[in-house]
Fold:
Amino acid sequence: GDSVTQMEGPVTLSEEAFLTINCTYTATGYPSLFWYVQYPGEGLQLLLKATKADDKGSNKGFEATYRKETTSFHLEKGSVQVSDSAVYFCASFSGYSTLTFGKGTMLLVSP
Amino acid sequence: GAGVSQSPSNKVTEKGKDVELRCDPISGHTALYWYRQSLGQGLEFLIYFQGNSAPDKSGLPSDRFSAERTGGSVSTLTIQRTQQEDSAVYLCASSLVEGPNSPLHFGNGTRLTVT
Structure:
């Protein structure tokens, strides 16, 4: 089955720093890839997605590019804000039943 | 509009007791998923419903766990004879249809503590 590996946190950054959270996947075929975000006290919500190789998903200043050759979907943001502090989950979907998540990476942004 | 609603938000129970967790999906969403979120373990898939049937229940950790969905809407996850290792946040999600182009909408979860 699918598996998703993402970097362990917490990732601690100062406001306006550049963010990268690494994510790699193993899957049968070509999965769709997602980043979900969980803000403190809230449920998970979809941040961005990419459904085929070389697609770039983007939302709220975050971007991730589907790299088939490296089986990666790293999340990036050029300038983080305190309000970006949350747990970020990378996920893959290659079947019609389950979304497979990574273990999550906590991001802490200080002013 | 209403999102996915889960109840209770918190549940403390004694080891050996049975618990029921409820999920009200977004109206009209045909697919419903249960996940478990444990510290350091990420999100673990439990079971998936399409309508009232469960094509994939491969993630249920033991026969103490069961789930049903009625009327293509509300779902209940039941844990019998709870154990301390069952302590986790149980998340429910729904999507309009199954498949990668229909994003999952998550509830805020039920935090279960087994003492």
In short: Residues 69 and 82 of chain B are 21 Å apart (CA to CA). The mean pLDDT of chain B is 92. Chain B touches chain A at residues 3-4, 33, 35, 40-43, 45, 48, 55-56, 59, 91, 93, 98-101, 103-109 (CB under 8 Å).
